[in-house]
Amino acid sequence: MTSRGFADEVTRELATAKQQPEVDVATIMSATRTKKTHRFIDVTITTSTFEEGQAIAGSISRILSDPNHLAQYLQALTAYNTKMPVVTPPVTHRANTIPGLISEIGLRTVIGLIVGIGLAFLVDYVDPSLRSRQEAETLLQLPVLGEIPRTGRGVAA
Predict the structure, then answer these.
(1) pLDDT digit string (tens) for 117-145?
(2) Is residue 45 within a helix (H) or strand (E), and if so which, with residue range?
(3) Which residues contact 54 (CB under 8 A, 6 or more apart)?
(4) Could you tell me if 57 and 45 are in contact, meaning their C-beta atoms sit under 8 angstroms apart?
(5) Model pTM greater than 0.70?
(6) Residue 82: its pLDDT value, please?
(7) Residue 42 forms beta bridges with which residues?
(8) What are phi and psi of 49, to 5 degrees?
(9) How many CB atoms lie within 10 A of CB 118?
(10) Tell me, what DSSP letter sits at residue 19?
(11) CA torsion sign, 94 to 100 to 106 to 111?
(12) End-to-end distance of the chain based on CA atoms, in angstroms?
């Protein structure tokens, strides 16, 4: 279904359909992806415009619904008198646009920062270590006999 012959047939079928956009064979070949799952063939069309994708998907659906075309492109199925109905009609979805992707990345970044800062505060709150002389004296209720002095940069010497 991704061959040049099939793409030519889709182009011819699009030319006979009324009010369909002009689509060349190379676009059809690069836009069409097929995947076989058990007894289903899933066809995915990725195009630059909504109308072009709709036209190609509709054309492929019409070709595969025609028994003569089915015999031509899927000969192994015709040997056993197999029928190939279209289970799910073509459905088109718009991909994310550049502004949509930028806003999604920005939103995910902000959420990541908020979660990261929240986790840092949680770890600090749960951390059982003592950080100052006063904390040690309060917790132990004993005087501290010695401590390691800090340098000017705040790092222990």
Answers:
(1) 999 999 999 998 888 889 889 999 999 88
(2) strand 40-45
(3) 90, 92
(4) yes
(5) no
(6) 65
(7) 35
(8) -125, 155
(9) 10
(10) T
(11) negative
(12) 72
- Long-range CB contacts for residues 140-143, cutoff 8 Å, separation at least 24: none
The encoded tokens of residue 147 equal: 């401590």
Structure tokens at 18: 């009324």
* Angle at the Cα of 40 from the Cα atoms of 35 and 44, rounded to 5 degrees: 40
Distance (Å, rounded) from C-alpha 157 to C-alpha 154? 9
Tokens of 66: 């025609």
| Chain segment 11-70, per-residue pLDDT in tens | 888 877 765 667 777 777 767 777 777 777 777 777 777 777 788 888 887 877 777 766
The alpha helices in 44-97, defined as continuous H runs, are 50-65, 67-73, 75-78
Structure tokens given for 27: 């676009």
CB-based contact 66:77 (threshold 8 Å): no
What does the chain come to in residues? 157
- pLDDT at position 132: 85
Number of H helices, E strands in the chain: 7, 2
Residue with structure tokens 């109308």? 51
Per the structure block, which two tokens stand in for 103? 């806003």
